[in-house]
Each structure stands twice: as structure tokens, then as C-alpha cells.
Specification:
The structure holds 2 protein chains of 2 kinds. Chain A is mainly alpha-helical. Chain A has 11 helices and no strands. In chain A, helix 3 runs parallel beside helix 9, helix 5 packs antiparallel against helix 8 and helix 6 packs across helix 7. In chain B, the strands form 4 sheets. Chain B has a 6-stranded mixed sheet, with helices on both faces. A 5-stranded antiparallel sheet of chain B has the order 13-12-11-14-20. The chains are: A mainly alpha, B alpha+beta.
Chain lengths: 226, 360
């Protein structure tokens, strides 16, 4: 009984952590580019990044299912590489979550990088800092609030995912059955007590996350930055 | 001047509103002021020199090419330092870490200015552990200057470092800048629109107007030239270099001797006989008389000869260039006064100098 409770929780945390870490790696260069470029592709790329915000998760899940399926080009690639097919696996969920949560990482980071502005980077350049050096030791520390917001939002958003997961992950215990899907299952089978435990846990968790985020942001705002 | 001890800057670039078109050879020592009204392109020129703007042109510093038509050394590879108007200290680093930022990024063998020296010169000993947000404007600018010096630059560029400061903070910084000018062999290009700052600090003057150089040369000569399109209006004047010759305790005055005369001015506590000082005489503070009138309040009466008379940019006003001995002085009079006194070149007159102040 206890295991059926904890399995989805554990799986959800694992998925959210993996997704957040991967997205910080992928999202940072995209956000940096969007914040600094004047290239004509800037608007189209920004729109693509924001698409998951407006698309119904089922639409996203449907196309991911097709692309990663045996007939899709990603599916054929993964098969050729000997990885097999991604749908209905944990790895498939990670790929879907990375795409689905992309704007929640990129947008706060982009805003943070934009508010760092050019001048501090120019100052750093006149103090002999090469481009990478400027990014790591000036831009990243000055944008640390953005990183914090991006990480928390991505993590929380991934935990709340439902539609995309149902579309490409199904409902396999221990592999793809995350919290939101587990709650749905319990409700379907009229197990309201179990659904209550998990749902109330989510409410408390989400509340704590948001309060922490606001507190940290408020502290940083009144702190060192002038 | 050979190429190895000058700074050659040649840029041509169109910007919204004006075209920068300069071809300058600047001395490799002392402070060169880039002077002009806002929007004349002086900051843009400084940014081009630093490589922060990429304009077509060439930039050679003490024999090292930084920019040629085919090459462009990126900013971080140029041995320069830049002091910005808004200091832009890194807000996430304390004063010590700010100072070390550039210092740690140059090879130890190239460090000609030691950390402790820079801290001492700018009086930062007690501030090292503070955060920038807690510093006053003057303190912040001192940290920015020390941070720049700690890269042991071969050229120091300063973009209106005092203009964001209040009067008291300016007075706080100026002595530090003078000390640096006298102690270091680093050429400094100093952008400013303040005649007072330029008069006090600069050895060399470049006047920009609308992206073009309209006057340049050693400070004193350039300031006193009548054909100088240096449109100062009310601020026209000259700079005299003199020596404190006498201190009068009773009237609390000091006498400054210069080639061609002497002036009395209010003494201050720091003055010692023999000190070299710069005195600024504004054209609007000088009136002329044909005879010496002793029965009046003005203390400084100096004989001089009229050299030339030119109309000012303001209608009805003339600028008279006089020679007191070898020293040129400018006076600003109404054209009617010039006419009534029948002033003409060659005529001896008495200059009545209403106020005299040390350049600051």
C-alpha cells in the first residue's frame, strides 16, 4: 500500500529534478542568445520557445508521440542508435517535459539577462575578461535571481504536468505513473482517500514552493543590487 | 613626436544624428581632454578608441596597433582601462573583489601598479570589505578608478568620471586625479563638458563639435586663441600658470606671480610660497580702463596691450584678446564699450579683474 503511494511521488521528483537540470543546461544558452541578439530569427525562435505556453498539452503530446513513435524520425533515429522507442518510457517523459517546460526556464532567464544590460559586460571587457569569463563571472551572478526563478518554476511546472504525460507515457507504475496520473487513477476508481492524500500534498508543496520563491526574490531585490 | 610615443586615432563612422570623422594624434603622456557639448561625439570617440564601438578606422597606441583596416583587437585584449561615468562597480562583489577583478586577469609580470599602492593612492584602505551599494558616489568613483588602474593600463580612458557627482564629491576626487596625473606615466584621455574640470586637469585639449575636431593643442594656447571655435560663451577665459609669491596674513590674501604681472587672490590653508598654481581668468570677469583708477574696489589692476578684437557668438558682445607681457588674456565687453573707449589693437589699457580663483 505504502509503495503505491511513494512510487509516483518518487518518480515525479526524479522526473522534475532531471528535467530542471537538463533545462538549465539547454535553456541558458537559448535565453542568453535571445537576450543579446539582434538577429532576425530572434522573434520566430522566441515564439517557438513560448509555444508550449499556449498549446493544449494534448496537442504537444500527440505530435511527440508521432515523432518519437516507430514511424517518426526521432523514433527511427533512437532505434537506429539502439536506444529503442521513447514513448511509454521514463526517458520519453524527460524529453517531453524538457520541451513542455522550456518557456518556464527560458523566459525568466532571458528577462534576467536583459536586465543585466550591456554596461557591466563592457566594464568586464575593459578589465580584460574574455567573453566566457564575462558570462560566468558577471552575467550569471548578476542574473542569479533569474536562475532561481527559472529552476523553481520549471521544477514546479514539471510536477504539475498531466496531459503530455498521459499522451506519451501512459500509466505504467514505476516507469511513467507520476503523481498527477496517480491522482487521476484514484479518482477514476473512486479511491477518494488516496486521491485526497496526494492532492493535499500537492497543494501544500506548491504553496511552499511559491512562498519560498517570493521570499527569495523579495530578499534579493532589497539586497545588494542597486 | 614619433609613432612610438603618441596615440593615433582615426575614425570615420556614421551614427544616428551625426558622423564621427576624426584624425587625431595625441601625446603619449599627460591628460588630454576631449571637450565639447553633449551630443558632439566625444563619448562615441572614446568608445571607438576602446573598441567598445567598432567604427572604421585605425587606432595605434604607443606604437602598438589596436585597430587597422584589417585587424581589430577585441576590447579584453587591449591594455587599456576605462572609467565610466556611472561607475558600474559589480554589485555582487565587495570593494576588494571589484579591485581584484582586473588585477587577477593580467599576468603577474605585467602588473606595474601593486594592489596596495592603488588602494593607498585612492584612500580605500578602510573600505575593502564594504559592498558597492553602501558607498557614497565619490567613494564609488574612487573604487572605479583604482579598479581601472590595477590593470596596469598603457592608456587610461575616462568618460566624464565626475559629472554624476555632487560638488562636494567632485572636490573629493579632483586631488586624486591630479596626483595620478603627476605620479603615473600613463596617458589619460579625459572626456568632459565642464570647462572648470578641463582647465584644472588637462595638459592638452581637443575640442569636438558635431563629430569633428574643431581645435586642438596644448591647453593654454588652445584656450586663449581668439579664432578658437571653442564656443564657451560665458565660460570663455584663459588659464595662467603662476607661483605663489607672497602670503598676507592680515588681509588673508595670496599673491600669484605670472609672466606679465601678479594677482591677489583669497588664500587658502594649503598654500605655501613657491607652489605652482593654475589660475583661471574668465573673460566676463575682466573689464578695461584707459587709465589707472585707484579709487575703486577692484584690487587687481594689470597693464596690458590690446592684441585683437573679435565679435563674440552673442550679438553685441566682443571678445578682446590682450597681452600682459607675453601672457594672453581674454576680456568680454559690449561692442558699445569697445567703441566708446575707441579700443584698437596696439592700445595700452588697464585690465580690471573682478574675481580671480584657482582653477578647480
Amino acid at each position: 500500500m505504502l509503495e503505491t503511494y511513494w512510487d509516483p511521488v518518487w518518480l515525479t521528483l526524479k522526473l522534475a529534478t532531471t528535467t530542471t537540470l537538463l533545462l538549465l543546461l539547454v535553456g541558458t544558452p537559448i535565453a542568453w542568445w535571445l537576450a543579446r541578439t539582434e538577429h532576425w530569427l530572434r522573434q520566430p525562435i522566441a515564439a517557438i520557445v513560448a509555444l508550449p505556453l499556449v498549446l493544449p498539452p494534448t496537442v504537444l503530446g500527440f505530435y511527440l508521440l508521432l515523432v518519437m513513435g516507430p514511424e517518426g524520425w526521432v523514433g527511427q533515429l533512437t532505434q537506429a542508435l539502439g536506444i529503442g522507442l521513447l514513448p511509454f518510457t521514463f526517458e520519453g517523459l524527460v524529453v517531453a517535459s524538457v520541451i513542455y517546460s522550456l518557456p518556464f526556464t527560458v523566459q525568466p532567464l532571458q528577462n534576467a539577462f536583459e536586465s543585466v544590460g550591456d554596461r557591466f559586460l563592457e566594464v568586464a571587457a575593459t578589465l580584460r575578461a574574455a567573453p566566457w569569463d564575462r558570462f560566468l563571472f558577471v552575467a550569471v551572478p548578476l542574473a542569479r535571481n533569474g536562475f532561481l526563478t527559472a529552476a523553481v518554476l520549471t521544477f514546479a511546472h514539471t510536477i504539475g504536468e498531466f496531459g503530455v504525460i498521459l499522451m506519451i507515457g501512459g500509466n505504467i507504475p514505476g516507469e511513467t505513473k507520476v503523481l498527477s496520473v496517480a491522482i487521476y487513477d484514484h479518482v477514476e476508481s473512486l479511491e477518494y482517500l488516496e486521491a485526497h492524500w496526494l492532492s493535499a500534498g500537492m497543494v501544500v508543496f506548491s504553496f511552499v514552493v511559491l512562498v519560498t520563491l517570493y521570499a527569495l526574490n523579495g530578499k534579493a531585490r532589497s539586497g545588494a543590487l542597486r | 613626436m614619433s609613432a612610438s610615443d603618441t596615440i593615433c586615432a582615426r575614425f570615420r563612422c556614421a551614427f544616428p544624428g551625426f558622423t564621427l570623422n576624426v584624425d587625431l594624434t595625441l601625446p603619449g603622456t599627460g591628460i588630454t581632454a576631449l571637450f565639447g557639448h553633449s551630443g558632439c561625439g566625444k563619448t562615441t570617440l572614446l568608445r571607438c578608441m576602446a573598441g567598445l564601438h567598432s567604427a572604421d578606422g585605425t587606432m595605434t597606441v604607443l606604437g602598438e596597433p589596436w585597430q587597422t583596416p584589417r585587424t581589430f583587437l577585441p576590447v579584453h585584449k587591449r591594455p587599456l582601462a576605462y572609467v565610466f561615468q556611472e561607475t558600474h562597480l559589480f554589485p555582487h562583489l565587495n570593494v576588494r573583489k571589484n579591485l581584484e577583478f582586473g588585477y587577477r586577469r593580467i599576468p603577474a609580470a605585467e602588473r606595474q601598479i601593486s594592489f596596495d599602492d592603488a588602494v593607498r593612492w585612492l584612500g580605500l584602505e578602510t573600505h575593502l570589505t564594504r559592498m558597492p551599494a553602501g558607498l557614497s558616489g565619490g567613494e564609488r568613483q574612487r573604487v572605479a578608478i583604482a579598479r581601472a588602474l590595477l590593470t596596469s593600463p598603457r592608456l587610461l580612458l575616462m568618460d566624464e568620471p565626475l559629472s554624476a557627482l555632487d560638488k562636494a564629491s567632485k572636490q573629493e576626487i579632483l586631488p586624486y586625479l591630479e596626483r595620478l596625473r603627476d605620479a603615473l606615466a600613463i596617458p589619460i584621455v579625459y572626456v568632459s563638458h565642464s570647462t572648470a574640470e578641463v582647465a584644472r586637469l588637462a595638459d592638452h585639449l581637443v575640442v569636438l563639435e558635431d563629430g569633428k575636431v574643431v581645435a586642438k593643442g596644448p591647453m593654454r594656447e588652445t584656450l586663449s586663441r581668439l579664432d578658437n571655435p571653442f564656443r564657451l560663451d560665458d565660460d570663455a577665459g584663459v588659464l595662467l600658470e603662476g607661483t605663489i609669491a607672497e602670503l598676507d596674513d592680515h588681509w588673508h590674501l595670496a599673491r600669484v606671480d605670472f609672466k606679465g604681472g601678479s594677482l591677489w587672490l583669497g588664500r587658502d590653508n594649503g598654500m605655501q610660497p613657491g607652489d605652482q598654481v593654475r589660475v583661471r581668468l574668465l573673460a566676463r570677469d575682466i573689464s578695461l580702463a584707459l587709465e589707472r583708477h585707484a579709487d575703486q574696489s577692484i584690487q587687481n589692476l594689470i597693464p596690458a596691450t590690446i592684441d585683437r578684437i573679435e565679435p563674440d557668438v552673442t550679438p553685441g558682445i566682443s571678445i578682446v584678446r590682450l597681452l600682459a607681457g607675453p601672457t594672453p588674456v581674454l576680456a568680454r565687453l559690449t561692442t558699445r564699450a569697445v567703441d566708446q573707449l575707441a579700443l584698437a589693437p596696439g592700445r595700452p589699457v588697464w585690465m580690471q579683474i573682478k574675481s580671480v580663483a584657482l582653477a578647480d
